[in-house]
Design goal:
Number of domains: 2
Radius of gyration: 22 Å
Strand content: 15-25%
Helix content: 40-55%
CATH topology of the largest domain: Aspartate Aminotransferase, domain 2
Largest sheet: 7 strands, mixed
Structural class: alpha/beta
Number of helices: 17
CATH superfamily of the largest domain: Type I PLP-dependent aspartate aminotransferase-like (Major domain)
CATH architecture of the largest domain: 3-Layer(aba) Sandwich
Length: 419
């Protein structure tokens, strides 16, 4: 019999094998200073394009004031206990009611964390006789929730309507045998590519198939739609989404999340969500802070307008310079380049050290080998000057990549890592 840890000693995993060279710089980096468009990285000022603070609320003076006052009033512990036992308050209910109204649903329920809440919601919605159909590019929280499912699940090709319909047909045949139902899961905005889920087209399939639609709208909430209610509002099908999910970790610049649906569905979920039934309630400081942030989303449309001014400037600037930004339909701005992992490391180091640009880097195994994805997140805090400096920097690093400068710099590393 093997020691349980033998596999850990032998194989650190596709990302872990880079730890000695990458940790502290390429992964687990430490940004310092107030959350803003410009922060410090290893003592240098950088323009930050890796913070999901879409509306610039993280360091907004009104938000900071409410957070501080709520902290002084309640501390960081109150209320103690799970909501079913001792952690329920009028303020939790108020926030739920206001969130439900904002996303145009009958009711909502607070979640302590987005990732945890998504996993638990999927688990509560389906039984072993039910079938899940979901996008192959779904976020890890969806994939982990699906893993808990004791029944059958089918993945469809990303945003591919033919594949969705084919898998709904398979799911329908199986559900007729098991006596179960079908849950289709999509994202409102896919956080890596920036594409919106094809919610309008998926909803139209309800005329042919009997399924319920669950949408993770983490990146759409607050950024898309006339009022900011998300991808469903943007596509005119918000009322056809059966269960809507969003996190506070993006547009709300905080901690927590919520689900929204018809009252009867929420009543069921709040008595069956294990991650909420057996976990401490969302602390009051975060609840009061979320109420303030939600009020700003409703009453300060200029925040979203400034966000989209920056998004449009960045994305149009990249496209006019010939960069491939895929088919993004959101604030998420991917830039696709061709190169090895060592080249990607050299490129990102050049961006940070010589151009003062900090953005996220994504390589294999998250995306196919030979591709480099630089992911930029514009916010309302950015300026057009930030955009111009970034466009110039990207033009410079692309030239070095295409002329082999980074390849020559990293030849030894590439050989060592088998690239």
């Amino acid at each position: 019999m093997k020691d349980l840890f033998d596999k850990i000693y032998a194989d650190k995993g596709p990302l872990g094998k880079w730890a000695d060279k990458a940790e502290g710089y390429f992964v687990f980096p430490k940004l310092e200073g107030p959350i803003s468009n410009r922060m410090k990285f290893q003592g240098k000022d950088v323009i930050t394009w890796s913070i999901n603070d879409y509306l610039g609320l993280a360091n907004h003076p009104e938000v900071r004031k409410v957070d501080a006052e709520a902290g002084a009033k309640y501390g960081s512990a109150y209320p103690m206990g799970a909501r079913m036992m001792s952690g329920h308050t009028d303020m939790h209910e108020q926030l739920q009611n206001e969130l439900a109204a904002f996303v145009q649903k009958e009711a909502a329920y607070l979640l302590n964390f987005g990732y945890q809440g998504m996993v638990s919601t999927i688990d509560a919605l389906v039984s072993k006789d039910d079938i899940i159909v979901y996008d192959v590019d779904a976020h890890a929280c969806i994939i982990d929730g699906v893993r808990l499912h004791a029944g059958k699940r089918f993945t469809y090709r990303h945003n591919d309507m033919e594949s969705i319909e084919k898998n709904l047909m398979r799911a329908t045949k199986l559900a007729e045998k098991t006596g179960g139902g079908i849950l289709l899961i999509s994202e409102g905005v896919f956080g890596m590519r920036g594409e919106q889920g094809k919610l309008k087209e998926i909803v139209a399939l309800k005329e042919k198939f009997n399924f319920r639609l669950f949408v993770d709208d983490a990146h759409g909430f607050g950024t898309l739609g006339k009022t900011g209610a998300g991808a469903g509002e943007e596509q005119g099908v918000q009322d056809k989404i059966d269960v809507y999910f969003a996190t506070f970790a993006k547009s709300m610049a905080s901690t927590g999340a919520f689900i929204a649906a018809d009252q009867e569905i929420i009543d069921y979920l709040k008595y069956n969500l294990r991650s909420q039934m057996f976990a401490k309630s969302l602390q009051m400081q975060l609840v009061e802070g979320a109420l303030k942030r939600l009020d700003m989303l409703r009453t300060m449309p200029e925040l979203k307008a400034k966000l989209w001014e920056n998004v449009n400037a960045l994305q149009s600037g990249l496209k006019s310079r010939g960069f491939d930004i895929g088919t993004t339909q959101s604030c998420v701005t991917p830039v696709y380049l061709k190169g090895s992992i060592p080249e990607a490391m050299a490129l990102v180091k050049d961006l940070r050290e010589n151009h003062g640009i900090f953005c996220s880097i994504v390589v294999y195994p998250v995306i196919p080998k030979g591709l480099i994805l630089l992911r930029l997140i514009p916010t309302a805090s950015h300026t057009l000057q930030d955009v111009e400096e970034t466009l110039q920097a990207f033009s410079a690093i692309r030239e070095k990549l295409e002329t082999g400068v980074y390849k020559r710099l990293t030849a030894a590393m590439a050989a060592e890592m088998g690239e």
